[in-house]
Amino acid sequence: MRSLRRLIGVAALAAAPVAGLSLFAAPAAVAHDQLVASTPEDGGTVSTPLTAVELVFSNAIPGEFVQVAVTDAAGATFQDGAPQTAGDTVTQTVQQLPDGAYTIAYRVVSSDGHPIEGTVGFTVSGVGPAAPAETPAEAPSETPSAAPSETPSAPAETPAEEPSDETTPAAGSGSSSADDGGGLGSTATVLLIVGGAVVVAVLAFVAAGGRRRGTAEDTDS
């Protein structure tokens, strides 16, 4: 009996540390949140247009560090705006998803502070291709606006050349009138000189005739 009690006591002492470790390890394993549901489901097929995708976790998570990306097989992204968090559900709005395979990649912070991440794959079928872009509709609006801006600039140069032709005769006429005035002035000067010379000659002739008469009278007396 004593030996049996000793064996039980030794076994209890040996099991105590293992039990203590299990008590500390169990809460740590349970505390990590996990993805429990998604819309669309992982591996599911969607045949109606999607406006958003949802991720549901096992516990409420903070919304400050939530990241969600929705990509197709070529790597193009389709998420629209930032994800919204309400308790344990994360909602991410998306653009129009044409037919094809898609992946939802998420990264959130668990309620115990540890980050968790994962992916959800789904397929869109029966929705059709993506709507054509509206960019070509804006192109014609730019073409007519550029044409009128160049038209008024051409006739602006025509009237600027006409006054230059009219000013040429005016300058010529001014120079010719100046030359005519100079010719008349020189002619008048010559006439004055000739006239003065004639007057002087007449006065000299008259003076000489008077002297001859005076000499003759003195001789007769």
Question: Summarize this, please?
Answer:
The protein is α+β, with helices and mostly antiparallel strands and 221 residues long.
Describe the structure.
- There is one protein chain.
- The chain is α+β, with helices and mostly antiparallel strands.
- 49% of the residues lie in helices and 22% in strands.
- It is built from 3 helices and 8 strands.
- The chain has a 4-stranded antiparallel β-sheet, with no helix packed on it. Strands 2-8-7-4 form a 4-stranded mixed β-sheet, with no helix packed on it.
- Strand 7 (100-109) and strand 8 form a beta hairpin.
- The protein starts with a helix and ends with a helix.
CATH class of one domain: Mainly Beta
Shape: rod-shaped
- Strands in their spatial order, largest beta sheet: 1-3-6-5
CATH architecture of one domain: Sandwich
Strand content: 15-25%
CATH topology of one domain: Immunoglobulin-like
Through-space gap between termini: 219 Å
> Mind summarizing the main beta sheet?
4 strands, antiparallel
Please tally the helical runs, counting DSSP H or I stretches of 4 or more residues: 3
* β-strand number: 8
Alpha-carbon Rg, integer: 60 Å
Give the rounded overall mean pLDDT. 73
Structural class: alpha+beta
Order of helices and strands: HEEEEEEEEHH
Helical content (DSSP H or I, runs of 4+): 40-55%
